[in-house]
Amino acid sequence: MKIVILLGAPGSGKGTVAARLVAADATLKHVSSGDLLRDAVKRQTPAGVEAEGFMKRGELVPDTIIAQMIGDLMKGIQGECTLLLDGFPRTVVQAEILDKTIAGCGAELSCAVLLDVADEVLVERIAGRRGCPKCGAGYHIKNLPPKVEGICDVCGAELITRKDDNPETVKNRLAVYKSQTMPLIDFYKGRGQLREVAGVGAIDEIVTRVKQALA
Ligand code: ADP
Ligand code: ZN
């Protein structure tokens, strides 16, 4: 198993890029810690119950919950594949946990791809973001609108705005990214594992840049 980490601020496009890469390559698997957590909250598992308040406030969920979740997930994966980690690791402590998990299961860390996007763009992207609660497809009211307003192209469900995409929580999530996640940039750079990609422009262009960075 190979691991690719997608690094970038909230709204930098990690999920969108991952979905596009996975659609074109069956050996890739997209793992979004945010999606896993939202699912746990929906099902009200013990981890979900504990995580809910942190997520509402835009704070990080405790590392122990994340470590357990990712550890379980990696244990369950069989065969040759590349995991695209989206939203994890988010702190240096989590990166160290990931190193141990990788060593423990004979996997290999390929690289960390940083999607570089300016703050103003992040705020605008998050404000217009909509998602399908049924199939997980992502949209943006301006940049990637559904064919029929408010309705998922793929499955016809009504699109929703994530609870934590309100301006107040977004401000907090960006601050948390700067203080707790940005140190990971130097962490992976120092090990020669960082690939920086401009995360702006057309989605196709960004996906092409990421593919080049992974080649
Ligand atoms: P975004 O990247 O747009 O902020 P995510 O869906 O990745 O959104 O995460 C949503 C929320 O889930 C975060 O604000 C945080 O509360 C929680 N979360 C996700 N991944 C992690 C993680 N690795 N460590 C701690 N909390 C996390
Ligand atoms: Zn849908």
Structural summary, described in words:
There is one protein chain. This protein has helices at residues 14-24, 33-43, 46-57, 63-75, 92-104, 119-127, 167-181, 183-190, 203-214, and strands at 2-7, 28-32, 82-86, 108-116, 129-131, 138-140, 194-198. It is α/β, with parallel strands linked by helices. The protein has a single domain (2-118, 177-214), classed as Rossmann fold, CATH 3.40.50.300. A hairpin with a 6-residue loop joins β5 (129-131) and β6. α4 (63-75) runs parallel beside α5. The protein is globular, with a radius of gyration of 17 Å. The mean pLDDT is 95. Bound molecules: adenosine-5'-diphosphate and zinc ion. Adenosine-5'-diphosphate is lined by residues 10-11, 33-34, 37, 54-55, 58-61, 66, 87-88, 90, 94, 164, 173.
Write a compact overview of the structure shown.
This protein has helices at residues 14-24, 33-43, 46-57, 63-75, 92-104, 119-127, 167-181, 183-190, 203-214, and strands spanning 2-7, 28-32, 82-86, 108-116, 129-131, 138-140, 194-198. With 215 residues, the protein is α/β, with parallel strands linked by helices. A hairpin with a 6-residue loop joins strand 5 and strand 6 (138-140).
